[in-house]
Amino acid sequence: MTPDFPILSVLIFLPLAASLLLVALRPSQALARGFALAAALAELVLAALPFFSSRLPAAYPGAPAGFFLFEDLPWIERFGIRYTLGMDGISQIMVLLTSFITVVAVLISWRQIKERTPLYYALLLALECTIQGVFLSLDLFLFYLFFEAMLIPIVFLSGIWGNGRPVYSAIKFFLYTFVGSLLMLVSIVTLYLMHGTQTGSYTFALPALVQTSVPYGLALWLFAGFLVAFAVKIPLFPLHSWQPDAYADAPIAGTLLLASLLSKTGAYGLIRFAFPLFPEAARAFTPVLYLAAVFVISFGAWIAFAQKDMKRLVAYSSLSHMGFIALGIAAWSPLALSGALLQMVNHAVTTGALFVVVGMLDERSDNRELAAYGGIWGKVPALSFFFLFFCMASAGLPGLNNFVGEFLVLVGAFKVAPVAALGAFLGIVLTLVYTVRLVQEVLFVKEQKPLELKDLTMREAGVLAVLALVAVYLGVHPTPVLDLFKAPIALLVSR
Amino acid sequence: MIIPDLHTMMPIIITGLGALVVLLCGPLLLSGTTTSIAVVTAAAAGLWAVFTAPSAAPAVAGLTFTPLAQFLIPLFCAAALLTLLLSHGYNENRAIKGEEYPATVLFALFALCVLPCASNLLILFLAIESVSFAFYILVTMDLQRAESGEAGLKYLLMGAVAAAFTAFGFALIFAGSGTLALSGAVAHAGNRAIVAAGWGVVIMGMAFKLSLVPAHLWTPDVYQGAPAPVAAFLSTSSKVAAASLLLMLLAFSPPMPELRIPLVLLSLLSMVVGNLAALRQQNIKRMLAYSSVAHMGYLTLALLTGTRDGYAALLLYGTIYTAMNLAAFGAIASLSLEQERDQITDYAGLGFSAPLRGGVLALAMLALAGLPPTGGFIGKFFIFYSAIRGGETALAIIGILSAAVSSFFYLKVVAQLYMHRSSDPAPRAASAADAAALCCAAAFILVLGVFPAPLIQLVDAALQ
Questions:
Q1: Any chain B CB within 8 A of the CB of A356?
Q2: Residue A120 burial by CB count (10 A; 0-12/13-18/19+): exposed, middle or buried?
Q3: Looking at this predicted complex, what is its ipTM?
Q4: Which GO terms describe its cellular component (chain B) (predicted)?
Q5: Closest listed residue to residue B369, CA positions, set A153, A125, A149, A184
Q6: Residue A1's pLDDT is what?
Q7: pTM for this entry
């Protein structure tokens, strides 16, 4: 691949172009989903390309250290706003993850979405565009633009095709994230102005802004602005209350994207922007983050146990698992950070898969009550197998992916904050409790009312099998992925 | 006056002549023809202004074709043009017939074109009052509806008070500085108090025109009563005109620290009260009226910084706001052809049954809420950027939070459009004129959201 080929821009705008085509042409249902799948697969191939290309940083003059793909164009010159994209190991994995999960999202919507299909897939692809933009932007203005623009497609997706109280949940989600992001905007502008007065060059470029010296007191405020924006997305206590509603009421692909990708944009933002920009303030906030993380791990698990609705149960379990990622970030040591990053991928795969399985059950029987199920093990063996598999993966069974991620986070955190690590460890016990309950009530206890269930179709089995293979692969051989993080993490931690 | 001067003043002359031609020849022509003539007139005036070089020397006593005029005249012409396109079908449906309507729109445009050219307080006053005068007539144009007349009367009474304030203020500034020339309206040491008082009274008058809190009370009633295309024109051009009047006064005179407190209060109250009051509205026009109060608060925030950045943000936001509100009211007008759609709930499901107009309305709402990638985001960004840079951080944060509140009521409309169902039959298809006007406004909103750089250059040139 030559440096002239703008692969990063294509990664961002290919889904958008496909999305616009879908809106403009409004093809039939079958054509729309076929086209969406083709676009999503093309994006996946494109996202995999950097793995096979030679990495010569010298090919990209002006690229910051660690970034092996880089694009930089003037955009709004009067304010020093540039269109700057860059890819290092972290963004590479995130971009690949995004394209992979989008393919899954397209596939699991196959039968479920029956009306306004072209618009549905158009929104799905538009969302992919904005998420890729978040993971690739190195200009804070551009990043903010993508971070905010994510809201539009996801709100439409959950509001139009959701169930339960979709409009209420969609608006609640929108308001939480919108307000959070606006506080980040104030921080960004303030930082930009400070940098401008200090150096005379007004720029939103991340590598330049990292050099700004911010007085400690102000840095605390600015960091808080970033933290609120990202904590809403992750979501961390006490900014999480939109999450169970939004997860429960969104269509299944919407939930998958919210849980697997949108929550990761928050964690990614903390790692890429908030911590490097204000290292001292971040250190000051670390105890708060520990507290929030440990609380979310235990509290999420506790509430998950009390749920009667399967999707809500998985939503709270997702909340709980995100706590580990927050814990790893807060510890900010190479070990914990690589655990957190690996866990970001793991969480996307396993929690995403759990939502997919629950969605498949819901699609079959139109019921998400735990009490309505039971004894499906004998009836639908393939579906039950994957259900059990992903429950085990999510609970952290050794040999599967979550185990590695959580282990790294716990070991990494234990070195710097033993108390927090211990608290998180106790949270794992609670995780086991609700997982066992979920497995038992859905798969094994005697059913109250016989349900007519069909087993997996080829398409569904294929999707779940791929997700399961990824989970196994990351569980037994995570080294290639961890290797990708090494260099960027070393750069991040050395600041 | 010599030939080159005539040349530079042509936009004013074109609109004036066009208005007269439409009014005088109207009875002899078909109603469609008068609208066409008016559209051509507006387009011609706008294009003429675009291709004429601005100059510092007055062309006629009291009138100079400044860079600011070169920026604002095409903007006003575009707004008038879109209004004319949008109102054609709307008016025919409501039996608003005859040449008065296009002629009055052109008269308003004529006064709007004079305003940025004024280099003298008297002309400035005449221009802004002629704008208002044309709008008093436009608001009452729908004779079939009692509301329309009531709205016109309210607007006229409030407007008369505002005019009195403005005139009194100008008189005080004249008394203090001894000249009517805009560039000479500088306070002398001995008369500073008089000039400052004059300023205060002028700001009060402009607060009425801009519907800033506490002088905003007429706004919801007038927007609700006026025909929707008129509300579109009123909420954009007359506001931008009033804001640019303040801009011209402030830009020409040395800094007046006394003005900061009143402007801060007007801006703060407008942002907070406007957005909070809009939250409670069920009627979409009233909601947009209160939202416009809030948006004028943002404009005032940019104005009170007193910096080049602030003035640039004001012009930028004024332009984007014009596109957003024309799109919003235009879509409302076009969707209200066979039945009035006043309540927000009347828009249920229209995103699907009328995709173009529903889509434009949704886009306008997202833009007004300030979401990327729309122009509304860029506009708000530069307003708050200039405020933080100008040292008004606290006010900017309050403004940002109130803008966050506002996203709720804009989103309510979007939710109605796409997330609620309605059993009503689909509305009649949009006319070609409506569709063209709405597409123009929507394209403008989107293009500015992604490529604002050319407009920023134009704004910078306008402030030379």
A1: no
A2: buried
A3: 0.89
A4: endomembrane system; plasma membrane
A5: A149
A6: 45
A7: 0.92
Q: Nearest CA to A455 among A392, A388, A378?
A: A378
Nearest to B415 among A149, A171, A178 (CB): A171
Nearest-neighbour CA in chain B from A46: distance (Å): 25
Asked if residues A442 and A357 have their Cβ atoms less than 8 Å apart, the reply is no
Angle between helix A334-365 and helix A458-476 axes, rounded to 10 deg: 160
* Tokens describing residue A186: 């104030």
Is the Cβ pair B371, A148 closer than 8 Å?
Answer: yes
Residue B27 DSSP code? G
Side-chain half-sphere of A7: how many Cα atoms within 13 Å? 22
E strands along B188-284, which residues?
none
Contact call for residues A129 and A19 (beta carbons, < 8 A): yes
> Of A261, A255, A329, A306, whose CA–CA distance to A438 is shortest?
A306
- Cβ-Cβ pairs closer than 8 A, A with B, add up to 72
Of A145, A167, A170, the CB nearest to B372: A145
Output the CA torsion sign for A303, A309, A314, A319: negative
* d(CA A250, nearest CA chain B) in Å: 12
Residue in this structure with the two tokens 């009627």, named with its chain if needed: B283
* Helices (H), ranges, A240-309: 242-249, 252-257, 263-269, 275-277, 279-305
Instruction: Tell me if A151 sits within 8 A of A176, measured CB to CB.
Output: no
Q: What is the DSSP string of B71-106?
A: HHHHHHHHHHHHHHHHHHHHHHHTT--SSHHHHHHH
Q: Which of A177-181, A222-226, A244-248, B251-255 has the lowest mean pLDDT?
A: B251-255
What's residue A225's pLDDT?
92
The encoded tokens of residue B227 equal: 């025909």
Residue A179 distance to chain B (closest CA, Å) = 6
Please provide the average confidence, as pLDDT, over all residues in chain A: 88
Which residues of chain B from 325 to 354 reach within 8 Å of chain A, CB to CB?
352
A50–chain B nearest CA distance, Å: 28
Instruction: Assess contact for A455 and A377: CB atoms under 8 A.
Output: no
DSSP-assigned letters across all residues of B147-161 = HHHHHHHHHHHHHHH
Structural domains of chain B, count: 1
As a whole number of angstroms, the distance between CA A113 and CA A8 comes to 31
Q: Half-sphere exposure of A470 toward its Cβ, with a 13 Å CA cutoff?
A: 23
Bridge partners, A71 (sequence order): A85
CA dihedral of A95, A100, A106, A109, whole degrees rounded to 10: -120
Q: Which two tokens stand for residue B92?
A: 């025919």
Tokens 């051009």, residue? B237
Residue of chain A whose alpha carbon sits nearest to that of B353: A116
Q: What is the dihedral of CA B386, B392, B394, B399, to 10 degrees?
A: -50
- For chain B, the average pLDDT equals 89
Altogether, the residues listed in chain A come to a count of 495
Question: Could you read off the pLDDT of B287-304 as tens digits, one per residue?
Answer: 999 999 999 999 999 998
Using the structure block, give the residue that is written with the tokens 């910096």: B307
Structure confidence by residue, pLDDT tens digits, B238-287: 999 999 998 988 877 777 778 888 899 999 999 999 999 999 999 999 99
- Optimal mutation site among B407, B446, B457, interface A, most CBs of chain A within 10 A: B407
pLDDT in tens, A50-94: 887 755 555 577 778 888 888 888 998 888 899 999 988 899 999
Contact across the interface for A182 and B389, Cβ inside 8 Å: no
Q: Cβ of A185 and B384 within 8 Å?
A: yes
Domain that holds residue B42: 3-463
A234-275 tens-digit pLDDT: 888 888 888 888 888 888 888 899 988 999 999 999 999 999
Judging contacts by C-beta atoms under 8 Å, the chain B residues touching residue A76 are 452-453, 456
In angstroms, the first-to-last Cα distance of chain A is 31
Q: Which two tokens stand for residue A263?
A: 């929550």
Of the two residues A416 and A367, the one the predictor is more confident about is: A416
Predicted confidence (pLDDT) at residue B190 exceeds the cutoff of 80: no
